[in-house]
Write a structure and sequence with these properties.
Blueprint: H1 2-11, H2 14-19, H3 21-55, H4 64-119, H5 122-127, H6 130-172, H7 174-181, H8 184-221, H9 223-228, H10 232-284
Length: 290
């Protein structure tokens, strides 16, 4: 039910996406094209090594075969450089469409929220703190922007890469592909676990920031009362405590990230070691080429 509720809530953003549908669909196309140009150079490197391995024993200095191999290597090198340039161009265009779209939507969302706040009755402002509203119009809208821009971009990017890369890997060696994908279940569980921790800590940080904003707004609006009772030191002490709590909650979030990224690096390194060992055995046995 929670997932359905979140999907319904995100459905309210469809009208904004539809306004920038050109940016959205072009961005997805650019993501797919950039991934294609990212995958193809690896195949060119493989083919160039195969050309060298097949002709290395028969190469003679100054022979026609040497010139032919040299020309083939130059062609592969030119293709690799060209693909890298095209990949960079389409990655730039990908960000200029999806990320720029998210910035435009963020601007419109903030304007719509502000317009809506102007129409609300005074009873609403009596029930809700100013800090809460400021946190929603900044932090929450910022998260929506991250969903509409980088999140969509990386989801499409990752999905396209998985389809292209796994397809090529299976065509080369099914055994080696399974060894490479072996750490993925552990990685997926780790990401899910860390994501749940990150969400809880981010919510706590946002709530604490709301309390600080509300406290500061109330102090400034009642500054004459504070001065009349000489409560400056008490206010400073309370503000320092609130800021200290905000710092501690932010450090909790940093500690989670500090554990997560080394774990990711370890799993990637483990997958690389397994790939090198199994791949080396396959090359020695002649099942695949270097």
């Amino acid at each position: 039910m929670k997932i359905i509720g979140n999907a319904v809530s995100l459905g309210a953003l469809n009208k904004y996406i539809w306004r920038y549908k050109k940016h959205f669909f072009l961005g997805i196309v650019f993501v797919i094209i950039s991934n294609f140009f990212a995958v193809v150079p690896a195949q060119m490197v493989r083919k160039s090594f195969d050309v060298l391995a097949q002709n290395l024993k028969n190469l003679q200095p100054g022979s026609n075969m040497e010139q032919s191999v040299y020309n083939q290597i130059l062609i592969y090198a030119a293709i690799i450089i060209g693909m890298a340039l095209l990949k960079g161009f389409f990655m730039f265009m990908m960000r200029q469409t999806l990320v720029v779209m998210s910035r435009h939507i963020e601007y419109e969302l903030k304007n719509d929220i502000y317009s809506h706040l102007q129409k609300l009755p005074l009873a609403f402002y009596r029930k809700n703190n100013t800090g809460d509203m400021m946190a929603r119009i900044t932090e929450d809208v910022g998260r929506v922007r991250m969903y509409l821009g980088p999140a969509i971009m990386y989801i499409v990017n990752l999905s396209t890469l998985i389809i292209l890369v796994v397809g090529i890997m299976v065509s080369v060696s099914l055994k080696l592909t399974l060894c490479v994908l072996l750490p993925l279940p552990v990685l997926a569980f780790s990401i899910y676990y860390v994501n749940s921790l990150t969400f809880k800590r981010s919510t706590a940080i946002q709530q604490q920031l709301s309390q600080i904003t509300t406290f500061v707004q109330e102090v400034f609006s009642g500054i004459r009362v504070v001065k009349s009772f000489s409560a400056e030191k008490s206010i400073q002490k309370h503000f320092a405590e609130e800021v200290y709590m905000y710092r501690e909650k932010s450090l909790d979030q940093v500690r989670v990230n500090a554990m997560f990224f080394p774990l990711i690096a370890f799993l990637i390194g483990l997958s690389t070691l397994v790939t090198l060992y199994v791949g080396g055995q396959e090359v020695i046995n002649g099942n695949i080429t270097p």
